[in-house]
Amino acid sequence: MNAAQIRELFPILNQEVNGHPLIYLDSAATSQKPRSVIEALKHYYETDNANVHRGVHTLGSRATDAYEGAREKLARFINAKSSQEIIFTRGTTAAINLAATSYARSVLSEGDEIVLTPMEHHSNLIPWQQAAKATGATLKYIPLQDDGTIRLEDAAAAITNRTKVVAMTYVSNVLGTVNPVKEVAALAHKHGAVILVDGAQSTPHLKVDMQDLDCDFYALSAHKMCGPTGIGALYGKKALLEKMEPVEFGGEMIDHVDLYESTWKELPWKFEGGTPVIAGAIGLGAAIDFLEQVGMDEIHQHGVQLAAYALDRLSRLDDIAIYGPREGRAGLVTFNLGDIHPHDVSTVLDAEGIAIRAGHHCCQPLMRILNVTATARASFYLYNTEEDIDRLADGLIRTKEFFGHAIG
User: Fold this and answer.
1) Element housing 279 (H / E)
2) Alpha carbon 166 to chain centroid distance?
3) Is the pLDDT of residue 10 over 80?
4) CB within 10 Å: which end of the chain, N or C, has fewer?
């Protein structure tokens, strides 16, 4: 895989920011979009723009074919048994909320337990807090080790016959930890619980297989995997989805409506009320085509190599704290540079055309465990190179110098 050549396929990366060539190291927040995805969106609006499922005219038929074709592509991409198991949502957050509201609140009661990890993004924490409050269930947490990992023996101790739901991120957006979700899924099923996997950070970088992981629900976002914003999906096992009630009601998701009662369409459409994000789904389909053309195994290996290189390169800097495991991590590095606030680090780097993230990364409980209020994060994707990381390291040296510190 030639990252430098792949970079040329992303128009936004061919620019200068503050007089410097752009180095984009914030793909964990959102990835950039290749020309093929942009062209797919443009083609839809210029030639096929129409509502789906309803019209029998040519534009409506073409739009419907493209929209449902994207669902089929995603089902194959994650190896779902059927496209009926793919519910289009606004993104990972909406997908998790759908599962937490429609499924969890219908099965939870007082005394039941929801098992989480302390590294969860707020999107995979707050919905479960609300479900617990609504049902009387309680939250339990698998302990976090000092290196930012969890142990299977701790997961086995936390998951009991009172556990009804386990919710876990596959890849931490702060620590880069790759969690053993397949093994935790087996533990959950042993006790009759279901597991939801937050796949926002894993789907862009790993070859994910629903049959191999055997998770019950899996949430993802298109915008982190070279697709548009505003579209994502909830995968759910068909037997579970069929028992769940919709949470949004109106047009498109209905079968029969009279003045006092209504019935719903079959899967997956009963969960997709109103006009869907048609262009977004088509863009997601184009993004899947692009990722498959590059190769998910190659993308994964590239991310592993960049993470290892970044850990080695940044660890040579004086007075830098790096968080998360040193091995087996995804393509991001979260750090603090001495006593310089992460926002100041990001500001100085931005002046040199280097885009990183700074803040609590929607993981405030994890920040408290790390005993920090915020961190800086550099995250990598298929268009990044080792030279980008060298630019980052050099920029951090100049950041220390700018704030009057010496660095070795």
Assistant:
1) helix 278-294
2) 17
3) yes
4) C
Contact 3, 302 (CB under 8 A): yes
Q: Which two tokens stand for residue 314?
A: 């940044």
Give 151-169 pLDDT, tens digit per residue: 999 999 999 999 999 999 9
Please tell me the class of the 50-293 domain.
Answer: alpha beta
CATH topology of domain 3-26+295-402: Aspartate Aminotransferase, domain 1 (3.90.1150)
Nearest Cα to Cα of residue 353 among 26, 87, 109, 9:
26
Is 363 an annotated catalytic residue? no
- pLDDT in the model for residue 404: 77
Q: Which of 215, 226, 362, 363 is catalytic?
A: 362
Contact 235, 89 (CB under 8 A): no
Mean per-residue pLDDT, 157-184: 98
Q: Mean pLDDT, to the nearest integer, of 53-73?
A: 94
- Tokens found for residue 202: 């894993």
pLDDT band at 328 (very low <50, low <70, confident <90, very high): confident
φ and ψ of 166, to 5 deg: -115, 130
Full strand arrangement of the beta sheet holding 320-323 = 320-323, 332-337, 375-379, 357-359
Q: Break the chain into its structural domains and give their ranges.
A: 3-26+295-402, 50-293
DSSP-derived secondary structure letter, 271 = G
**Do the Cβ atoms of 141 and 278 come closer than 8 Å?**
no
In Å, how far from its chain's centre is CA 171? 8
Model confidence over 128-155: pLDDT tens digits?
999 999 999 999 999 999 999 999 999 9
Amino acid identity, position 119: M
